[in-house]
Amino acid sequence: MGLLGDMVFLFGVFHSSVWIISVSGSPALTINLSSDSTIHISRSMASQLKCNVCIGPSCHSSLMLSKSMEVVFTCPQPEDVFIVKIVRHIVCTTMCNGTINPEDYSSLQNFNRTFTWNVKVQGHKAFCLDFTSAGLRQIQTTEQCPDKLIYTVSTGTATVGKFCRQGTIKSMQVLREGSVSLEVPAKQQLNAKSFGVSIGPEITSPAIIKVTLPEKPSSQEFFSPNYPESFPNDDLITWAFQVPYKYYSTVHILNYAMPRCDTKDTRMEYQLNGKTLVKKLSDAQLSEHQGSFNLSLQNCHVDTQSSSTNLTLHFKISAVQRGSEVRCTVDLKRENRLQIHIEKKKPKSDCILKLNSLAKETATIPSQMVSYVSFIDCQEKDLLISIKKTIACKQLRDCPVPESLEVPALDKCIMGVVQEVRWHLYGPKNGTVELVSSGGRLQQFLPGHTCNNTVLLNVSNEPQGVSVGQFCPQGAIHKMQINVPNITVSASPARGKNLRQITNSLLHVSFAKSIRASEHYVFTVLPKKDIPVLLATPAWPLGMNEYATVSWFVSFPAKLEAHVSFTNVSQLTCKNRPAYIKLHRQHSQDKMYIWQEQNPKDVVVSESFYLNMSNCKPVKGAFSVVSQVTLHTSKSVRLSIILSIVGVALLLTAIISAVVCIMRKKKKKRSAPEVSVYNPNSHPFLPGLHRIPQETEDEDVHIYHCIDDHLVYGHLLKDLEMNEDGKPAVCVYQDFTGPIERQPLPEDGGGAEREVEVYRPFTLPQSAPDVPDTLVRPGENPACKDTQKADEEISGGDSVQETEPG
């Protein structure tokens, strides 16, 4: 180092010192460099000043220093003209573990300077750049960082991008060789944080950018390499996104340009849980994905002869925290021609619907494959499900036996309300589709009526889309025959219910040979007694197609009669032949009723019948009719029933009367006659309460419990008859012949004579006599008992008993 003037200014940094020396007013620098570093001093492209940098007598517009030496500038303020690049070379062989601490040259702070670290590894391995402490955020080339420090990462073929600090990019892997640059503006100190360099694994992508999203709602933007210039031909770049738990990320493409490809295609590849998902740039990208994933941008082999050769991509990834997620695996590999369609009821709701890890507003699950459906923050009412199934055959021999139409059973993990199940029925050409009700019969659903069930069935012609009618269970229509090969049957819930609640079969479908060409629709109706059945023409109230015909075969048991009325008949004008209604009995082809261009009248039919209706070619109006059929008991049957009931009633009355008479006679024979007893000893007892004792085998009627002494009781027996021995008859029953009741004297003083010795039935007095206190044992005579009591009263309580000889 020598003296180059009157004044010398010394600035230095240990190991890398810079001396600024002024000689005759011209600034000079003395720079000490390490062995693995170089300094590039070059004129800025934006500067218009003429200034050179000189080493000795040799002056140039730019200069590269690889060793320590002196430089002199030919202008007084070289920092306004020149920029400085400090380059360090790092070669990794077997090991390359270290930390890079950017070191600034304090004397160069007046210059715009760029610090560059070129890193190279051997083989197909990559080197890793660890920016954990700094954290990078990608920006556009024209954008500035808040701290004015800009990082640039490049591969051997492209610039990965420009970055600011305080971002989510924590590390990068670069294949074989690359560089990291740090731009520092003039007159600003270098406050950059260190970053690490190490040898990484073998990779196939030129660069892998690892992004760690924060545990809060966030949004980050990313750009393709060389943006806004073209991504290299047939090149690849990968972003690895680390998503926090319970956070869901979505990729939005903000801007892109696609080249015309010679071979291959430009595409975006998602690596999701070991599966690869390929998307075009024009497709909807990954949405509401939970968990980490990799995103790769693959360029094609560009057609250089085309004007469209640029591939550019600008996208954004956002992440938000969500609640619980329900995942469901739907296996339809064994299902043929079955589709499950799920859609959000409110597109702006918090419910997230995902099919195969992609968020969708509507998701269609196809048959013969396995699909993965997810529901995030969803309730069953937030989703609507519709199911489609196709039943088809080309030949009658290939058609299945009557197949059941029922709501397919869905896994419980599939959330949503089943609002429609649609069956597309494709039969052989010139064939007929037959629909038979399963559990119960059907009733036709008409406007203004209610369906008292959980399901509403709609049948329509497939080619024309003409509705045959709407039907509810629990009716009288047993079978429908439609003379077209293709129809559609759909089931929808009635009164806002869920079709998932229906587990039974709705209809049975089969294919048969075509019925008569003139018959388009044939219904078999089995009405019940006293229940009205409404029958409407197809497509009511819009009207039938021109020349279309419909027939109802109404079958019912004998002894009933059908009352047919026409509740609603439209008015129309025909072009050629008129529309008509015909009605004839089942066993008679004679037309019982014909209507043509006049109002039909009610009729009564006594047996099963056919009701035919045929449309014309309407000029004005439409042909639509609603008829009503009600079964009642026939008049002759009603009369015979009434007569039978009357006859049975009379017979029952006669039988009951005879039984009553017989029962009364038997009762009179079993009942004892009523007896009146006269007792002069003022010990009355009620007649009829005690009957004459019944004789038993062990009882001797000639043995008495008491013996009456005629000497003692003779005054009581003086009026009684004597027995054969001349003694009073004691304990002998005699008919009472005295008066029964006192007759009141006539008012005339007894002018009329009373009837004597005339039997009168015993009648109780108004006040019944007291029942004697003495109990009468079985076999005792009441009169004898009273006599014994009188003896006791006379003898003062001493009774005379006859003792048996010892």
From TrEMBL:
Query: Which keywords annotate this record?
Result: Membrane, Signal, Transmembrane, Transmembrane helix
State the source organism's domain of life.
Answer: Eukaryota
Q: The CDCP1 first CUB domain covers which part of the protein?
A: 29-92
Q: What is the annotated signal peptide range for this record?
A: 1-25
Membrane among keywords: yes
InterPro entries, alphabetically?
A: CDCP1, CDCP1_CUB_3rd_6th, CUB_CDCP1_1st, CUB_CDCP1_2nd_5th, Sperma_CUB_dom_sf
Record field: transmembrane: 641-663
UniProt domain CDCP1 third and sixth CUB: residue ranges: 207-311, 518-629
Domain spans labelled CDCP1 second and fifth CUB: 102-199, 420-484
Residue ranges of region Disordered? 762-806
> PANTHER family from the xrefs?
CUB DOMAIN-CONTAINING PROTEIN 1
Q: What name does the UniProt record give this protein?
A: CUB domain-containing protein 1a isoform X1
